[in-house]
Structure formats: C-alpha cells, structure tokens
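Annotators were shown the component list below and the corresponding predicted structure, then asked to write short factual statements about the assembly.
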Amino acid sequence: MKHIALRCLTLVAIACSANAEDTLNFVEVSDGIFMFEGEINDIFASKNGRVSNTVFIIGKEAVAVVDTGASLKQGKLIRQAIKSRTQLPIKYVINTHVHLDHIFGNQAFVTDTPEFIAHKNYQQALAAKGRYYQSRLTEVGLGAPDIIKASRLIGKTVTLNLGDRPIRLTAMGRAHTNNDLMIYDINTATLVAGDLVFVDHCPVLDRGSLAGWLGVLAQLQKLNFSLLIPGHGPLQTDKSALTKMTRYLTHLQSTVREAVAKQMDLHTASNTLLQDEAKHWRLFNEFHKRNIIAAYTELEWE
Amino acid sequence: MKSINTLPLKLFTLCFACCLAWSLYAGTDAAEESSENWPTIKANLFAGDRVIHSDDIISLTTPTRAEDAAIVPVSVTANREQSNDVYIRKIYLVVDNNPSPVVGVFTLSRQTGLASIATRIRVNAYSDVRAIAETSDGQLHMAKNFVKASGGCSAPAGTNDEEAEKRRGKMKLRQQKQGDLMQLQLLISHPNHSGLQLDQISRLWIPADYVNDVRIFFNSDEIISFSGGISMSENPSIRFYFKPDKKGTLLAEVKDSKGREYRDSWPLANP
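Structure shown to annotators:
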C-alpha cells in the first residue's frame, strides 16, 4: 500500500508540474537588479533543483548574470527572463563559486558568447568536482549539463562596466569554499554575496575555512551596502544576517576546538555538538553535522 | 490541437517518472539486503572457507548516512580486554562497494590493552561497512553496518589537500589518560590521493599517492600497525589504546605508496 501511495503522489506531482507554465519569478530589487529567490531546500530533496538565488544586472550596454542554477532547464528559464526584459547582450556570466546548484545553468548562455567569470581557484575545483556533480545531478533527474569552464579568472579585484554601471568583483580568501567571488553594484550599493552569506538556510562549510569565513564576515560588516543578496534565502536590507552567521560560526569554532582538545571522537562530535543551534536554522539536520566534521578536521591541525 | 500534441509526451513523462521512482525505491531495498561483492572480497581476504562468526567480540559504530563521504568516521569497539587468553590480533576494515574494498588491516599487540580503534574512511557508494576481528585462536568475528554515502573516493579530497600537501608527512600524537589506559590518536598530514580523482585541466587522473604503512612503537616494541590503501580519508587519523607499564617514547613510522618515509616520536605522557 505504501508503494502505491508513493506512486500516486508522484503521478499527481508530475501532472501538476506538466500543466503549470514554468517560469522563474524574478523581482526587481533595485533599479536594474533582478533577483530570483531559490527555495530553501536540499537540492537532492527538491523537486527541480532550484534552491539557489540568481541575480542579473542590466546596464546601459550589457547584462551580467550571477549564478545560473542547477540545470540546463533552469539556465534557459533565467535566460528567458532576461530576454523578456531587455535586448541588450548578455556579456558576463559570473559564478560566485563552484557548487552544483550555482553553475549548471551556464550551458544555456553559451550561444550568447559571454565571458564566463569566476575566482582563480574555480577552474581547479571544477576540474576536480565537475564529473562527480554531473553524476549526482543525473541521479536525481536533473540531467547532466555540460561543464563550462570559466574563460576569465579573477585573482583579486576587477571592475566590469555594463554601461554607466560599474560592478566590482572581488575574489575572497578561503571561506565557504576556496573559490568564493562576490559582486558589488556600485550605483545602487548592492552586494551580491553568493554563499558567503546564507539567510535562514544553515551555513555550509565545504572544505573552505572556518577561520577564513569569519574573517570575510568581519570584512562584510565594514562594507557599506544598502542591499544584500545572499546565495540562499531572502533579500536583506541590513547586517543582521551577517551577525547571525558570525555568531553560529564562532560558536562552532569554540565548541569544536574544545572537542578536539578533549579528544572527543569525530562521530560523537558531529552527532552531539551544538544541537541548540537547530532552532536558528532551516536544513540544520542536513548540514550542521557536516559543518562539525569540516571544522574538526580544520581545527585539529591548528 | 495543442492538448492532443502534448498528451503522448505527458504520458511518456509520467511513465518514465514512475519507472524511475519505482527503480530507485526497489534498488534501495535490494542494496540493504545483501552485497554482491562480499563473497569475492571474503574469498580474497581469508584463505579457504573460513567461518566468520557474527558475535559480540567487537562492535562497529558508523553514521547511517555519511555527512561527508570522503570523511566517514568509523570506530570498532573491542568487547574484551587484550589481557584475555584469547586476544584480538587483527582488525580488517572493509567497504563492500568501494573500488578498493579493503580499507586496511590493523595488527594489534597485547600491549594495546584494549583493541578498540577508530579512523576515517571514504565510502564511495551505499555500502555495507564491515569490521572483522581475528582473535589469537584464529577465529574471525564480524560486525557490520550499512552506510549511505556516495562519491567518497572519486569526490576530490577538496581544498584541504593544499594544506595537506604543504604539511605532508607532519604528524601529531594526541594522548589522553583513560583509567589505566592511554587513548592515543595519531594524525598524519597526507593528501592520500585515491587515484580516482580526475584533474580536468590536465585531463589526467591524479595519481594514487597514499599512506600504506603505519607502525607505532613504544621503546622498541611494536604496539600497533596499519597496512592499507586508498579508502582511508585524507590526513589519516588512527585512534587506539595503549596500556603502559613504564616510562618511554612512542615512535611512529609511516610510509606512503610513493616510497616516502616519515617518522616522529613523542615522550609518553605521564600515565
């Protein structure tokens, strides 16, 4: 009976999705800046993999798109959303970091011949992870879009001009990953932070650096911005999201450091530490244990 | 017209999705029941047709679902002391569905006091993870768990391996007194490349380069050793016990598959 119920549910879900017109809801959050807010969900549990935020910025001469989602389909819908608003060329496709929920719509933009821009460490990370990501996406029915290499790598800071609209790209040190890039739209003082900032969604440390990430958050606290677009979660108009993340990561650091000193084993540590943080974050059960493992294996070499 | 045209497509999508959901569902059940690989692994690992007891000589702790498939903590608890007439002299760790299923074998002396060990492994697919203890009377005793993970061996070691590369060969020994035993943890900084990670810039596989031999001595007596392969996580960690009866020095000798040798020593903390 359980099996039949499961299949019926699948039927209904598929039928519904086939009937609804599929578009992405982009909101103009500031003059010429459009944001799609992804669902806060684990990509492998989600229906269509649309779990990360995408931004596009329209200048007087060109368009830049920041992150392209997890599938070719999503990339095409992003492109369609841009094309429905402007005929200006899409000159830049910027990936904030290498994670699979941010890069696999890139293929949809190949015909626009944009520059594909990323952090200097991106290529290496993509080389290492690309195929693995393709196989994971295939497993959950999101297809296996082409791996699109970056055509331009940023080592420090570069300013691009979209036509009376300069945007500043900054390559960060190890934080969420080792290839985080953030984008700042100077005219509107909007920060597109990628996964350097998580809102509501439990932050995820993926072989980045806990100490490095705390350093980056301290930098962001000093930055003047009027709007902050995180990689996951809703638009922010103040710095409270930074404060909340800093509190969690600091707590993680001190607690795990103590566990390392006490020789608490990794399994126990990941299962027991900081359970009281659960109330502050969505997807806590999916990512917090992993954060402890990442923190532990970083801090034991201090 | 439109609805007529799209109907077959919708039906096809429906059927396809059902089949997919069904096969995923059925597949999980089957994987949990048995492992196709185990009979072959067993035949290769243990000569002849040896009986393996499923009893309580050891117990195994693993996560049910790996949080990070490249770093899965496993611990084996020995349920009898090494002072017993029949003591545990070897512990094999096996991940049935890994490309290299035998993680390695630990050889334990009586001086360990307690043959409990813990380490971190890579788990490449949903798989049974097994610990098999060989006792000094030649009997085999097994504990196993099913672990859900994917991509531990082919997933890149990640960015930590930059650090591991810089620190290559550096070791740490953590010591903690627990009753009349010392709990020791040896950490070895090493990228432990599995050989299954693709470098897509060069289009070449990163060559296997891993720690394959670890020996730990107290004064001149070997107390525990490990011999193994690519299924150990980067920066290998081995936790074990030692029952000291005098002052002395702990020495670790480590070799990797490229023939490099590393050694370090530490005075035994006051027992």
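Statements collected:
1. Chain A touches chain B at residues 3, 6-7, 10-11, 14-15, 18, 121, 123-132, 135-136, 139, 141, 147, 174, 177-178, 206-208, 262-263, 265-267, 270-271, 289-290, 293-294, 297-298, 300-301 (CB under 8 Å).
2. The longest strand of chain A covers residues 190-198.
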